[in-house]
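Please go through the sequence line and C-alpha coordinate line underneath and see whether the fold suits the sequence. See right below:
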Amino acid sequence: MSPELDIRTAVLTAVGLSLFFAVIALIGGINSIFRGRHIPYFRMRYERIVKGWRQLLLFAMLLALAWVLNAYAEPAAYSFFPPSITPTLTSTITLTPTISQTPTISLTPSITYTPEVSNTPTLTLTPHIPLAIEAQFEGQLTPPADVIFSKLQFTNQGVDSLYRPIQPAEVFPNPVGQMFAYFTYDGMAEGTQWTALWYRDGELIHFETSPWQWGTGGAGFSEWTPNANDWLPGEYQVQMFIGLDWVVVGAFLVEGQPPTLTTTASVTASHTPTSTLTHTVTLGPSSTPSPSPSATPPKPSKTITPSNTPWPTTTPSVTPKPVTVTPSRTPIPTIPRWPTATRITPSATITRWPTPTKDN
Protein backbone atom coordinates (compact mmCIF):
# COMPACT_ATOMS: atom_id res chain seq x y z
CA MET A 1 0.00 0.00 0.00
CA SER A 2 1.42 3.39 -1.01
CA PRO A 3 2.03 6.22 1.55
CA GLU A 4 -0.40 8.40 -0.38
CA LEU A 5 -3.23 5.97 0.31
CA ASP A 6 -2.29 5.72 4.06
CA ILE A 7 -2.26 9.51 4.48
CA ARG A 8 -5.60 9.88 2.73
CA THR A 9 -7.16 7.16 4.87
CA ALA A 10 -5.82 8.69 8.08
CA VAL A 11 -7.21 12.12 7.17
CA LEU A 12 -10.66 10.73 6.36
CA THR A 13 -10.69 8.74 9.63
CA ALA A 14 -9.78 11.82 11.67
CA VAL A 15 -12.50 13.87 9.98
CA GLY A 16 -15.08 11.15 10.62
CA LEU A 17 -14.19 10.84 14.33
CA SER A 18 -14.35 14.62 14.77
CA LEU A 19 -17.83 14.75 13.25
CA PHE A 20 -18.98 11.80 15.38
CA PHE A 21 -17.91 13.35 18.69
CA ALA A 22 -19.29 16.72 17.58
CA VAL A 23 -22.75 15.19 17.12
CA ILE A 24 -22.55 13.54 20.58
CA ALA A 25 -21.56 16.87 22.17
CA LEU A 26 -24.44 18.64 20.42
CA ILE A 27 -27.03 16.12 21.63
CA GLY A 28 -25.63 16.14 25.20
CA GLY A 29 -25.53 19.94 25.39
CA ILE A 30 -29.11 20.41 24.20
CA ASN A 31 -30.36 17.69 26.58
CA SER A 32 -28.50 19.20 29.57
CA ILE A 33 -29.86 22.71 28.96
CA PHE A 34 -33.41 21.43 28.51
CA ARG A 35 -33.38 19.37 31.72
CA GLY A 36 -31.61 22.06 33.77
CA ARG A 37 -34.46 24.52 33.20
CA HIS A 38 -36.87 22.20 35.09
CA ILE A 39 -34.72 21.79 38.26
CA PRO A 40 -36.27 23.82 41.15
CA TYR A 41 -32.96 24.53 42.94
CA PHE A 42 -31.03 27.47 41.61
CA ARG A 43 -27.47 26.15 42.10
CA MET A 44 -28.16 22.77 40.54
CA ARG A 45 -30.08 24.40 37.68
CA TYR A 46 -27.17 26.81 37.02
CA GLU A 47 -24.56 24.05 36.98
CA ARG A 48 -26.62 21.91 34.62
CA ILE A 49 -27.18 24.77 32.12
CA VAL A 50 -23.48 25.77 32.19
CA LYS A 51 -22.54 22.16 31.48
CA GLY A 52 -24.88 22.17 28.46
CA TRP A 53 -23.34 25.35 27.03
CA ARG A 54 -19.85 23.88 27.45
CA GLN A 55 -20.92 20.85 25.43
CA LEU A 56 -22.28 23.13 22.70
CA LEU A 57 -18.93 24.97 22.65
CA LEU A 58 -17.16 21.62 22.33
CA PHE A 59 -19.46 20.79 19.37
CA ALA A 60 -18.40 23.99 17.58
CA MET A 61 -14.70 23.29 18.21
CA LEU A 62 -14.97 19.71 16.90
CA LEU A 63 -16.83 20.92 13.80
CA ALA A 64 -14.07 23.47 13.08
CA LEU A 65 -11.41 20.80 13.63
CA ALA A 66 -13.07 18.50 11.08
CA TRP A 67 -13.07 21.28 8.47
CA VAL A 68 -9.38 22.11 9.08
CA LEU A 69 -8.39 18.43 8.81
CA ASN A 70 -10.29 17.99 5.55
CA ALA A 71 -8.80 21.12 3.97
CA TYR A 72 -5.19 21.27 5.16
CA ALA A 73 -4.14 17.97 6.74
CA GLU A 74 -3.33 16.08 3.52
CA PRO A 75 -1.14 18.83 1.88
CA ALA A 76 0.69 19.31 5.20
CA ALA A 77 1.34 15.57 5.51
CA TYR A 78 2.81 15.43 2.00
CA SER A 79 5.41 18.04 2.98
CA PHE A 80 6.73 15.66 5.70
CA PHE A 81 6.03 12.32 3.98
CA PRO A 82 6.53 12.72 0.19
CA PRO A 83 4.63 10.24 -1.99
CA SER A 84 6.58 7.39 -3.55
CA ILE A 85 6.86 6.75 -7.27
CA THR A 86 4.47 4.11 -8.58
CA PRO A 87 5.10 3.92 -12.34
CA THR A 88 2.75 1.99 -14.58
CA LEU A 89 4.64 0.16 -17.32
CA THR A 90 2.86 -0.59 -20.56
CA SER A 91 4.53 -3.23 -22.70
CA THR A 92 4.33 -3.06 -26.46
CA ILE A 93 4.65 -6.39 -28.28
CA THR A 94 5.69 -6.18 -31.91
CA LEU A 95 5.58 -9.39 -33.93
CA THR A 96 7.50 -9.24 -37.21
CA PRO A 97 7.25 -12.58 -38.99
CA THR A 98 9.61 -12.91 -41.96
CA ILE A 99 9.20 -15.97 -44.21
CA SER A 100 11.88 -16.50 -46.83
CA GLN A 101 11.45 -19.40 -49.24
CA THR A 102 14.71 -20.30 -50.97
CA PRO A 103 14.22 -23.17 -53.46
CA THR A 104 17.34 -25.01 -54.55
CA ILE A 105 17.12 -26.81 -57.90
CA SER A 106 19.85 -29.29 -58.83
CA LEU A 107 20.10 -32.19 -61.30
CA THR A 108 17.95 -34.16 -58.95
CA PRO A 109 14.71 -32.19 -58.67
CA SER A 110 14.50 -31.24 -55.04
CA ILE A 111 12.96 -28.10 -53.54
CA THR A 112 14.10 -27.06 -50.11
CA TYR A 113 12.06 -24.48 -48.20
CA THR A 114 13.97 -22.61 -45.55
CA PRO A 115 11.50 -20.53 -43.54
CA GLU A 116 12.94 -17.83 -41.34
CA VAL A 117 10.28 -16.89 -38.79
CA SER A 118 11.12 -14.58 -35.92
CA ASN A 119 8.44 -14.66 -33.21
CA THR A 120 10.56 -13.01 -30.51
CA PRO A 121 8.48 -10.11 -29.07
CA THR A 122 10.18 -6.78 -28.54
CA LEU A 123 9.19 -5.16 -25.24
CA THR A 124 9.49 -1.38 -24.91
CA LEU A 125 9.51 -0.78 -21.15
CA THR A 126 11.51 2.46 -20.93
CA PRO A 127 9.81 5.64 -22.22
CA HIS A 128 12.05 8.03 -24.11
CA ILE A 129 11.91 11.57 -25.50
CA PRO A 130 11.86 11.96 -29.32
CA LEU A 131 14.86 13.74 -30.81
CA ALA A 132 12.68 16.53 -32.28
CA ILE A 133 11.49 17.48 -28.78
CA GLU A 134 14.94 17.00 -27.23
CA ALA A 135 16.29 19.60 -29.66
CA GLN A 136 14.03 22.23 -28.01
CA PHE A 137 15.54 21.81 -24.51
CA GLU A 138 16.77 24.97 -22.79
CA GLY A 139 17.24 23.90 -19.15
CA GLN A 140 19.54 21.57 -17.25
CA LEU A 141 19.40 17.88 -18.17
CA THR A 142 20.68 16.45 -14.85
CA PRO A 143 17.71 15.80 -12.52
CA PRO A 144 18.06 16.21 -8.74
CA ALA A 145 18.98 13.04 -6.89
CA ASP A 146 16.03 13.13 -4.45
CA VAL A 147 13.23 14.26 -6.81
CA ILE A 148 9.89 12.47 -6.23
CA PHE A 149 6.63 12.60 -8.26
CA SER A 150 3.32 11.08 -7.17
CA LYS A 151 0.97 8.95 -9.25
CA LEU A 152 -0.91 10.87 -11.97
CA GLN A 153 -4.60 11.59 -11.51
CA PHE A 154 -6.76 12.66 -14.48
CA THR A 155 -9.76 14.99 -14.48
CA ASN A 156 -11.59 17.17 -16.99
CA GLN A 157 -13.24 19.29 -14.28
CA GLY A 158 -10.12 21.25 -13.27
CA VAL A 159 -8.49 21.71 -9.84
CA ASP A 160 -9.67 23.57 -6.75
CA SER A 161 -7.94 26.40 -4.86
CA LEU A 162 -5.66 23.90 -3.09
CA TYR A 163 -4.56 22.30 -6.41
CA ARG A 164 -6.55 19.11 -5.84
CA PRO A 165 -8.26 17.37 -8.78
CA ILE A 166 -12.05 17.67 -9.00
CA GLN A 167 -13.74 14.28 -9.59
CA PRO A 168 -10.68 12.34 -10.84
CA ALA A 169 -11.40 9.26 -12.96
CA GLU A 170 -9.79 6.79 -15.38
CA VAL A 171 -12.58 6.55 -18.01
CA PHE A 172 -14.07 9.65 -19.68
CA PRO A 173 -17.00 9.70 -22.16
CA ASN A 174 -17.08 12.15 -25.07
CA PRO A 175 -17.18 15.13 -25.21
CA VAL A 176 -14.12 15.43 -22.93
CA GLY A 177 -13.06 19.07 -23.32
CA GLN A 178 -9.96 20.01 -21.32
CA MET A 179 -7.90 17.29 -19.58
CA PHE A 180 -5.61 17.74 -16.55
CA ALA A 181 -2.88 15.31 -15.41
CA TYR A 182 -2.50 16.16 -11.69
CA PHE A 183 0.53 15.26 -9.56
CA THR A 184 2.45 16.23 -6.41
CA TYR A 185 6.24 16.58 -6.29
CA ASP A 186 9.16 17.19 -3.96
CA GLY A 187 12.91 17.76 -4.35
CA MET A 188 12.73 19.65 -7.67
CA ALA A 189 15.35 22.24 -8.68
CA GLU A 190 14.78 25.50 -10.55
CA GLY A 191 15.94 25.47 -14.19
CA THR A 192 15.78 21.68 -14.67
CA GLN A 193 14.15 20.69 -17.99
CA TRP A 194 10.67 19.22 -17.47
CA THR A 195 8.73 17.44 -20.23
CA ALA A 196 5.23 15.90 -20.48
CA LEU A 197 4.34 13.70 -23.49
CA TRP A 198 0.72 12.82 -24.36
CA TYR A 199 0.13 9.66 -26.44
CA ARG A 200 -3.02 8.13 -27.98
CA ASP A 201 -2.69 4.43 -28.80
CA GLY A 202 1.10 4.81 -28.99
CA GLU A 203 1.06 7.96 -31.19
CA LEU A 204 2.40 11.29 -29.87
CA ILE A 205 -0.37 13.92 -30.01
CA HIS A 206 0.75 16.67 -27.58
CA PHE A 207 3.78 17.65 -25.48
CA GLU A 208 4.97 20.29 -23.00
CA THR A 209 8.62 21.07 -22.27
CA SER A 210 10.21 24.00 -20.41
CA PRO A 211 12.70 24.76 -17.63
CA TRP A 212 11.16 24.12 -14.19
CA GLN A 213 10.12 27.29 -12.31
CA TRP A 214 7.45 26.20 -9.81
CA GLY A 215 9.44 25.61 -6.62
CA THR A 216 10.94 22.56 -4.94
CA GLY A 217 7.72 20.98 -3.66
CA GLY A 218 3.96 21.17 -3.98
CA ALA A 219 1.30 20.17 -6.50
CA GLY A 220 1.05 20.75 -10.26
CA PHE A 221 -0.55 19.52 -13.44
CA SER A 222 -0.10 19.16 -17.20
CA GLU A 223 -3.08 20.10 -19.37
CA TRP A 224 -4.25 19.57 -22.95
CA THR A 225 -7.15 21.41 -24.62
CA PRO A 226 -7.59 20.14 -28.21
CA ASN A 227 -10.54 20.64 -30.55
CA ALA A 228 -13.67 18.66 -29.70
CA ASN A 229 -13.30 16.39 -32.74
CA ASP A 230 -9.70 15.47 -31.77
CA TRP A 231 -10.82 13.42 -28.73
CA LEU A 232 -10.92 10.08 -30.56
CA PRO A 233 -11.80 7.00 -28.50
CA GLY A 234 -8.84 4.97 -27.30
CA GLU A 235 -6.18 4.63 -24.61
CA TYR A 236 -4.30 7.81 -23.69
CA GLN A 237 -0.97 7.85 -21.84
CA VAL A 238 0.97 10.70 -20.24
CA GLN A 239 4.73 10.35 -19.64
CA MET A 240 6.68 12.87 -17.54
CA PHE A 241 10.45 13.38 -17.69
CA ILE A 242 13.00 15.35 -15.68
CA GLY A 243 15.85 15.99 -18.07
CA LEU A 244 16.10 12.80 -20.11
CA ASP A 245 14.93 10.52 -17.25
CA TRP A 246 11.26 9.59 -16.96
CA VAL A 247 9.70 9.86 -13.51
CA VAL A 248 6.01 8.89 -13.81
CA VAL A 249 3.56 7.41 -16.33
CA GLY A 250 -0.26 7.50 -16.20
CA ALA A 251 -3.07 6.36 -18.49
CA PHE A 252 -6.82 6.91 -19.02
CA LEU A 253 -9.50 5.84 -21.52
CA VAL A 254 -11.82 7.91 -23.73
CA GLU A 255 -15.09 6.29 -24.86
CA GLY A 256 -17.64 7.32 -27.49
CA GLN A 257 -17.30 9.18 -30.77
CA PRO A 258 -16.36 12.89 -30.70
CA PRO A 259 -18.84 15.49 -31.96
CA THR A 260 -18.63 16.29 -35.66
CA LEU A 261 -18.09 19.79 -37.05
CA THR A 262 -20.70 21.25 -39.40
CA THR A 263 -19.35 23.48 -42.18
CA THR A 264 -21.48 25.80 -44.32
CA ALA A 265 -20.33 26.31 -47.92
CA SER A 266 -21.00 29.68 -49.55
CA VAL A 267 -21.63 29.81 -53.28
CA THR A 268 -20.94 33.05 -55.19
CA ALA A 269 -22.55 33.32 -58.59
CA SER A 270 -20.44 34.89 -61.32
CA HIS A 271 -21.82 36.41 -64.47
CA THR A 272 -20.10 35.33 -67.65
CA PRO A 273 -20.41 37.74 -70.58
CA THR A 274 -22.04 36.27 -73.64
CA SER A 275 -20.79 37.18 -77.09
CA THR A 276 -23.39 38.53 -79.52
CA LEU A 277 -23.16 37.80 -83.22
CA THR A 278 -24.19 40.51 -85.69
CA HIS A 279 -25.41 39.24 -89.06
CA THR A 280 -25.65 41.85 -91.82
CA VAL A 281 -27.32 40.74 -95.02
CA THR A 282 -27.32 43.12 -98.04
CA LEU A 283 -29.42 42.46 -101.08
CA GLY A 284 -28.68 44.24 -104.34
CA PRO A 285 -31.41 46.37 -105.88
CA SER A 286 -33.30 44.99 -108.82
CA SER A 287 -34.35 46.84 -111.91
CA THR A 288 -38.00 47.71 -112.35
CA PRO A 289 -39.20 47.39 -115.95
CA SER A 290 -41.06 50.30 -117.49
CA PRO A 291 -44.53 49.61 -118.90
CA SER A 292 -45.00 49.50 -122.63
CA PRO A 293 -47.76 51.55 -124.27
CA SER A 294 -48.90 48.50 -126.22
CA ALA A 295 -52.22 46.99 -125.50
CA THR A 296 -50.80 43.65 -124.34
CA PRO A 297 -48.24 44.17 -121.63
CA PRO A 298 -45.19 41.96 -122.01
CA LYS A 299 -44.01 39.79 -119.10
CA PRO A 300 -41.21 41.67 -117.34
CA SER A 301 -37.87 40.07 -116.70
CA LYS A 302 -36.74 40.26 -113.03
CA THR A 303 -33.04 40.37 -112.35
CA ILE A 304 -31.74 40.07 -108.75
CA THR A 305 -28.09 40.70 -108.18
CA PRO A 306 -26.95 38.96 -104.97
CA SER A 307 -23.97 40.32 -103.09
CA ASN A 308 -21.25 38.01 -101.74
CA THR A 309 -21.13 38.77 -98.07
CA PRO A 310 -18.77 36.57 -95.96
CA TRP A 311 -19.96 34.79 -92.83
CA PRO A 312 -19.69 36.88 -89.68
CA THR A 313 -16.70 36.28 -87.41
CA THR A 314 -17.40 35.51 -83.72
CA THR A 315 -15.57 38.00 -81.56
CA PRO A 316 -15.63 37.06 -77.81
CA SER A 317 -16.03 39.90 -75.40
CA VAL A 318 -13.01 40.57 -73.19
CA THR A 319 -14.55 42.97 -70.72
CA PRO A 320 -16.25 41.36 -67.65
CA LYS A 321 -19.48 43.33 -68.22
CA PRO A 322 -21.92 41.88 -70.73
CA VAL A 323 -22.17 44.00 -73.88
CA THR A 324 -25.47 44.12 -75.72
CA VAL A 325 -25.11 44.84 -79.43
CA THR A 326 -28.17 45.81 -81.39
CA PRO A 327 -27.95 44.21 -84.83
CA SER A 328 -28.31 46.53 -87.77
CA ARG A 329 -30.77 45.38 -90.32
CA THR A 330 -30.99 46.61 -93.92
CA PRO A 331 -34.55 46.68 -95.12
CA ILE A 332 -35.27 44.47 -98.11
CA PRO A 333 -36.51 46.45 -101.11
CA THR A 334 -39.93 45.64 -102.43
CA ILE A 335 -39.79 44.08 -105.88
CA PRO A 336 -43.01 44.36 -107.87
CA ARG A 337 -43.80 41.11 -109.48
CA TRP A 338 -45.86 42.50 -112.39
CA PRO A 339 -45.90 46.04 -113.77
CA THR A 340 -49.11 48.00 -113.74
CA ALA A 341 -50.43 48.49 -117.32
CA THR A 342 -51.79 51.88 -118.30
CA ARG A 343 -54.55 51.57 -120.83
CA ILE A 344 -54.71 54.42 -123.42
CA THR A 345 -58.14 55.07 -124.85
CA PRO A 346 -58.16 57.25 -128.02
CA SER A 347 -60.72 59.99 -127.93
CA ALA A 348 -62.36 61.44 -131.10
CA THR A 349 -62.63 65.18 -131.68
CA ILE A 350 -66.16 66.12 -132.57
CA THR A 351 -66.85 69.44 -134.34
CA ARG A 352 -70.28 70.55 -133.42
CA TRP A 353 -70.70 73.21 -136.17
CA PRO A 354 -68.98 73.31 -139.48
CA THR A 355 -66.90 76.30 -140.29
CA PRO A 356 -68.47 78.23 -143.18
CA THR A 357 -66.35 78.73 -146.25
CA LYS A 358 -66.61 82.00 -148.14
CA ASP A 359 -66.62 81.88 -151.95
CA ASN A 360 -64.58 84.44 -153.81
